[in-house]
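Run log, item B.
One chain of 469 residues. Sequence copied directly from the ordering sheet:
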Amino acid sequence: MRYSDFKIVEKQLVEASGIFNRQAGQQFLHMDTNHILTFTKIDAYPSDAEQFQDTASRDAAVELLDKSLDQPIQWTNAPTAGTLAFGLAYLVDDQTGTNGQPEEIAVFGRYFKKVAQAGIPASWQNNQFHGYRLQTGAATKIQTGLTPQDILGVEEKRYRGIESLMKEVRVSLGDKPQVLTGFENLAAGQFPITMEGQKSNLTAIRDYAGEVLQPIGIMAGVIKGGVDAAAADLLNGTSWNDLDLYWPAGKNHNLVDSIFVRADGLEIGISSKGKDGADASMKNISDAILKAKNENKKLYDSYPKVVEICDIVNDNNAEVGPLVLAKHLKLIDDATAKFISGMKKANMSVEDIQTQKAQILEVYHSFGAKLNHPNYNIYNHMVTNTAKMCAKQLNSDANFGTGMMEFMKQASIIQVYTDAKVSGDDVVVTGFRSVYPPQFAGVITVNGGKNYASTKITGKLAFKMPSGK
């Protein structure tokens, strides 16, 4: 997710789900000591009922579990006569243990009225861990000041070569000398790189600073594999340092985080962490289709419907596009399209729709909307429903989604993964894995609700990449 997309306060992001929704590998930081524990699992008791019959049977279960554990249970609340169920959360310290295996050093417990209640996200908050706080999620990482926007600014700028980029990095990371040293070493071709004292910033360095480190590593010749394959295919004998480089500020490149630009204008996207499951923009799809048209005519000719649909979306603005597309798909006729288009300046109300012909009513009722929202707009509602109708129709055609995926598989995108670990109090960036051509699997679906709502329209139809590989 791009930093500029975050519009939610920290508490909402971090506490949106509780301990029973945590996943193995997520980290908790002690706010006083900076000690980190890694979550492994959570169990609820009793396992075969909502609650124990009485406090005696509950306490007997606790005693039995206590004896079977190497560490005492650290309870986060006191039992009462009404709390006849409990949960146990298990965490490890990755830096202790023997034979390379982390040691289980913490078992936290909490009492509940029923097991069913324990499954409610808010019933065991992420901060109810004796001073440990959840360190996953966007809010925590943003606070570190290591996003690309923190390092390079929010304005879209172009750089050419490592030194051009490093001038900006040195200024923005001047107050973070340990992090800057890692950047400098990577730019000099040294690898792996260490950032001293940054243990608590592991995920921010890997997931956010990594979006800047990756192009540096590419230009320094540190990252191989897919990067070399892309260079052979796309650079025509030139160097990565000879290309312009920028981090897109808008939402026209959802699948990529940074972009190298060839002299002839061809854009080579760097997709940090692969970003499978992200929404591909119309720009991503169009570039992939154009590449096929120029370099793979057989592929281009194999999916004429995909080309035709994408051309319609690409050639029209966000409001007109769904109406033209719906006419093309025979979901609405020309009169309905003209009526909806004319609603923008007609100052119509919901009541005005009720007396119109059946097809207009069909569009109005096809999907719900927040009619009581203060920013509700009947025109936006009708365009949004039209977009969603188009998406539903296109998603019913598996060949359409398959065709879009075939185009995306030969897109000029390099997927890069950053590997990092904690070593003592330091963070060590241990490697970069790069993949080219991009590895996507499954079918792409049309996301009619991504940029469309009855309150506002923010962009064209988006395309949902399948999650998982």
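Observations after the first pass:
- Residues 202-219 form the longest helix (18 residues).
- Residues 1-16, 118-122 have pLDDT under 50 and may be disordered.
Flagged for discussion on Thursday.
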